[in-house]
Amino acid sequence: MSLRSIVRELKEMRDGIGSTSKRGAESKRRLSRTKSYVAPDVLVTPSELIQQGQWANLPSELLLDIIRRVEESETSWPARAVVVFCASVCKSWRSITKEIVKTPEQCGRITFPISLKQPGPRDSPIQCFIRRNKETSTYLLYFGLVPSENDSNKLLLAAKRIRRATGTDFVISLAADDFSRASSKYVGKLRSNFLGTKFTIHDSQPPHDAAFQQNCQSSRRFHSKQVSPRVPACSYIVSTVSYELNVLCTRGPRKMQCVMNSIPVSAIQEGGNAPTPTSFPQLFDEPFFPSPAIKKKVPITDLSSASYSEQPVLNQGSIEPLALKNKAPRWHEQLQCWCLNFKGRVSVASVKNFQLVAAVDPSHNISAEEQERVILQFGKIGKDIFTMDYCYPLSTFQAFAICLSSFDTKPACE
């Protein structure tokens, strides 16, 4: 066979392969066009498939009965985590679980993180304990009576003390290893003045009552180049804690008073209700609209460097806030010390121990029993171990912040 005939055959083979590939491409395009006519009208994104899954196909009646039984059987941590797991399966499970799970005021249980911002039960207190670490200046709040050996206690909140030239800050977080105020774990802080006699409790989210939402600080906490611009722009002062100065250095316990700016005094009256938030603000789901001061490029104010006197105080208007005072102890002649009945929850004498009751005027028509009811008690039970028991109308966050004020040094009050 000559060279010319060989080249001709190679060309014919190449042309045949090209026509075959063209026909295959055309057939694929026709197949895709025919498939497009049977495609569903509503496309399901992969994220929705992941969120729903096959468990979402269960009948709603069956699903409701299952989650209700789980919620009733698992009453304490760590077993209560099963209820949280049910809410993490898919959207259907989450919506039903939220409908079944009640607030701590109604059921006396702590389930979701928002429970830490809701008032405690009215009848019996929620019992917790605080573990202090002097080396790291951290304070961990756990749910339970006393520390367990297997570390199965439920961590509720964590705080870190930061000393400054003008005072002390206690940054409160949901995690024990993340105290950044740019994090979604940040829930608030406690700030003291220079003498450690006055404290303000700052909440990262506004109180439930709209009357208090208008009194937020408009300055941003962070520079726009440091963190996401959707970090919340306000810090809400919800409470103030004051310790009475001991000018004459007389012998006796500390005297303290708390003004709960976010809780009206009517909350402890018959038929009254305390503000109850239902969810945390959606930090990254909602757009952030900068204030006019930010748009005009006004110099940014850092709240961490602001003095105590510059912090705005909530204007209550016609709403009178609830005031708390420490219950006066009695002097024990045999023990030669001041004593309070902690009902077995405190075993070590300490200047930090206290009990808070409502400080109300007789004109509010509040019963004597309600006035003597201990709303918050805090005391020492061992080395760096303290108990914290609280009830309505305080929340876990508010009670923990008040107890943190007792850890700060107060030479002017002792």
UniProtKB/TrEMBL annotation:
Pfam families: F-box, Tub
Domain (Tubby C-terminal) ranges: 116-409
Matching InterPro entries: F-box-like_dom_sf (IPR036047), F-box_dom (IPR001810), Tubby-like_C (IPR025659), Tubby_C (IPR000007), Tubby_C_CS (IPR018066)
Superkingdom of the source species: Eukaryota
Family per similarity comment: Belongs to the TUB family.
Biological process terms in GO annotation: regulation of DNA-templated transcription
Protein name according to UniProt: Tubby-like F-box protein
Ranges of residues in domain F-box: 55-98
TM spans (from-to): none
